[in-house]
Amino acid sequence: MKVIEAILDVFRNPQFYSITLTSSTPLIFASLGGVFSEVTGVVNIALEGIMLIGAFVSTAFAYYTGSPWIGVLMAIVAGIGVAWLHAWASIKWWGDQIVSGTAIILIAQGITGFLMKPVFGQVGQTDLEKFKMIKHITKEINPIVRPIKLPFPENSFLGQAFGNISPLVILAFVSVFIGWFIIYKTTLGLRMRSVGENPEAADTLGVNVYKIRYFGVLMSGVFASIGGAFLSVGDTGIFKELMTGGRGFIALAAMILGNWNPVGAMLASILFGSSEAFANQLQSSKLIEVSSSVKPLFNMVPFIVTLIVIGGFIGKTRPPAADGIPYKKSE
Amino acid sequence: MEKYWGFIIPAVSVLVALVIAAFVIMSVGKNPVEAYAIMVKGAFGSSAAIVNTIVKTTPLILTGLAVGFGFRAGVFNIGAEGQMIMGALTATAVGINLGWAPPYFALSLTIIAGMLAGAGWAAIAGYLKAKTGAHEVVTTIMLNWIATYLSSYMVQVPLAVGSGTPKSPEIAPSAKLPVLMKVGPMEMSAGIIISVTAAIVMYVLLEKTTTGYEVKAAGFNPYAAEYGGISISKNVTMSMAISGALAGLAGVVELMGVHHRFLGTLSGGKGFDGISIALIGQNHPIGIIFAALLMGALRTGSNEMQFAGISKHIVMIIQGIVIFLVAADRIVRTMILWRKRKKVKV
């Protein structure tokens, strides 16, 4: 019964809700990126790699310039670059989109690992103090995007859960709204969806299929890289090798569960994020004693939840009809 | 010409990747020619190096076959890593309890247990795909993480032994693969025979049997195959299971031939290497053997490079570029044809 008591206690703890927000944010960004790409018909499993690049680049620029916002900005630039690589292979050269995505994940893991030493002076994970020692930097470096104070009473439940919130978290929700608006309320969105559903018909009506698909994939680079940047400069302030830890794929699952709709993907991201927060909180619960050797079992939770949800509910969602199929314009 | 593309595309892709990686090495102020020389020497420079390369190649042949078989059947098994872990983990649980058994019994039981575990783990993804349409790329990745954490728990609690790095006890001596060759501290086990045999079996299965024909037909065009009376959902589950059995076997040979106990680092990305290997080997069993040898040499050689101050990660970059070019093989085709056209003009 102690376990049930501990579980209930997690839900009563405001910290659970604040961790849910921080665990969901990278997923919200990345799944929104996935939606933008796949709505136009390009499968993008490279999200994991783009996130990793975003996390790396934002940390590097935050360390060298002292501003995490410049880090985020440069992460977006790098994210667009990596996404362009995927777009180029899959749109222009009709490459296998899943294989190309896998390649980009490998390249991202390789490059970030390779550059750890030259860029940060150490391998594994970054350490701001050591970095300062190597670079003799005297000016203030703040590697974390400063949180915004929301006007909730300090000691209230809401104040403890959402009192200090990263502007990137707010940006995530704003992005979802903008994404939804673009895809469902604008001509551009109509074109995106038509290209994803029936590229031949769209082409006949004068829509430039290639251009629209490039736009979708590059936008996925923008969002996925901000999601990655949140992991480093938005939350922890450090970069760790392979720090995305499968989140790109959980984001893909969120996109599928959300039926390729930005709002749906956001809700699914919050579900997966809350499962991560739940496991995280339960293992540090004071009511039950959890020895550190059992922690791996808790780490499994988000992945099991994702697997069950994706296996159980997927029949009820439908991908864009031309998703993953290269468009070969007849000459 | 068309006949040779299957060889030319991967070969050119590897070359291009090595050239691009040379620029990456130069960007950190090292000499790429020296770096590659160290790599080749590290992989083939002495008999110990060669044995080391073969030991590294052994599980890679199997993960390459696992992914390659999946591709031929139309499924992308990105979960060889997890299946390898589950295979090795189960084989460990069986192998440590077989002290009483004679070798032939202990060996076969441990191998079968590992293969079944890999097959079962992969079949979850196959079943879900057949039943609900859940894409195997997402489900197998989830299964990878679950396997990683599960094994990490298993060697910390139920199977734990000693202190320090989490590890399991050694498997029974009768469940260890016989050593074929010993050079210094390097032992080459009979695992390489198992790997090559598996490649031959897969070749025969795919090219000479009805089951193989059905698998390939389902992979090539599922709708036509279904019309022709092949059950797609049964095929997907079975193909994933066979693919997983091969990945499980990779974990088994690594356990029974190299480490003799379960360690967290046992799989170490070998399952993911299977993807590159299958693509470089063009999903052909014999091609996969050579692709695995290439990757095994890169891995062994890169250890040597690490001592010379060049991060091992360069191998991942090379692999990534090769896969990228094989994915978009029209880039390579265009490159070759363009050069040819130029020659004609001159």
Attribute tags:
heterodimer; A: 331 residues; mainly alpha; ABC transporter involved in vitamin B12 uptake, BtuC; two-stranded antiparallel sheet; 2 strands; B: 346 residues; 14 helices
Structure in a nutshell:
The complex is a heterodimer of chains A (331) and B (346). With 331 residues, chain A is mainly alpha-helical. Helices cover 71% and strands 1% of the residues of chain A.
What is the overall number of helices of chain A?
Answer: 15
Radius of gyration of chain B: 21 Å
CATH topology of chain A: ABC transporter involved in vitamin B12 uptake, BtuC
Through-space gap between termini of chain A: 70 Å
The rounded Rg of chain A comes to: 21 Å
What number is the mean pLDDT of chain A? 91
Q: Provide the CATH top-level class of chain B.
A: Mainly Alpha
The CATH top-level class label of chain A: Mainly Alpha
Structural class of chain B: mainly alpha
CATH architecture verdict of chain B: Orthogonal Bundle
CATH topology title of chain B: ABC transporter involved in vitamin B12 uptake, BtuC
